[in-house]
Write a structure and sequence with these properties.
There is one protein chain. By secondary structure, the protein is α+β, with helices and mostly antiparallel strands. The protein folds into 2 domains: 118 residues, Ribosomal Protein L22, Chain A, CATH 3.90.470; 105 residues, Ribosomal Protein L22, Chain A (Alpha-Beta Complex). The chain is 35% helix and 27% strand. A hairpin with a 5-residue loop joins strand 9 and strand 10.
């Protein structure tokens, strides 16, 4: 099945894929990878990390093949700014991926850089210290003002994924310190940028989306420009991509 982003340039597509797969499905995903990807997979010390990488990269190739009308193994990648993955050649499709726990998310858009981040929500003893080290003072103060630990942890993950999504969309990696821009993090407030640097006008030129792709996970999507129609596809098994 093909999906054509060029005919719907006002959309952003987000796919969710479970990474835990039977050995046979895992091997089929590995068979789709390039030689450098296989070599990278084999550098993982722990088998579960190797298998997650193979399924996540295989799923990426399967999804891109739908948009590009080609075979998954024919897709060539290159490193863009900040080593952000990109397609070789003159393709106008932009993509980004993130995975945490057993879930991977993939974002695709036409002529628009995208960044996506997903995290598995887990208890953290040191979330306040991490926030103080990486969030801007306003975000940290808002986080610590919340009434209970559960609300604070959930707000921490909302803030973290929104910041990571922006950094990944920009493609500058660590050259964009997380404390130099501010996002909303309260559960009852829509996801948005408050300021980028000291500039609230720059913040208005970006779109930020909050995602809850599966129970126990929180995610965010960021991209420049006005809001596009978000098409989110419920979590699939890797076998669904291989057989459809």
């Amino acid at each position: 099945m093909k999906f054509d982003l060029s005919s719907t340039p006002s959309e952003v597509h987000v796919w969710a894929v479970w990474l835990r797969a039977p050995a046979g499905i895992n091997n089929l995903c590995r068979a789709l990878l390039s030689s450098p990807e296989v070599a990278k997979a084999d550098t993982f010390v722990f088998e579960h990390l190797r298998r997650s990488y193979e399924v996540s990269q295989g799923a990426l190739r399967l999804l891109l093949a739908r948009y590009m009308m080609c075979r998954p193994r024919d897709i060539d990648f290159q490193a863009g700014p900040g080593s952000k993955p990109a397609l070789c050649g003159d393709s106008r499709i932009r993509f980004n991926l993130s995975h945490a726990g057993g879930l991977a998310l993939y974002a695709f858009a036409y002529d628009c850089e995208v960044g996506i981040d997903v995290e598995e929500v887990r208890g953290m003893r040191d979330f306040a210290e991490v926030a103080a080290a990486h969030f801007c003072p306003e975000e940290t103060a808002e986080l610590l003002s919340m009434d209970d630990t559960e609300s604070r942890i959930e707000a921490f993950y909302r803030c973290w994924t929104r910041k990571e999504a922006y950094v990944k969309a920009v493609g500058d990696g660590l050259r964009v310190p997380l404390h130099q821009f501010q996002v909303t993090l309260a559960a009852d407030e829509p996801a948005r940028f408050v300021r980028i640097g000291r500039d609230s006008a720059a913040a208005s030129r970006w779109t930020l989306e909050h995602l809850e792709p599966a129970p126990g996970y929180v995610a965010a999507l960021a991209y420049p420009g006005s809001a596009r129609n978000l098409v989110f596809r419920q979590p699939l098994e890797a076998r669904d991509l291989l057989t459809s």
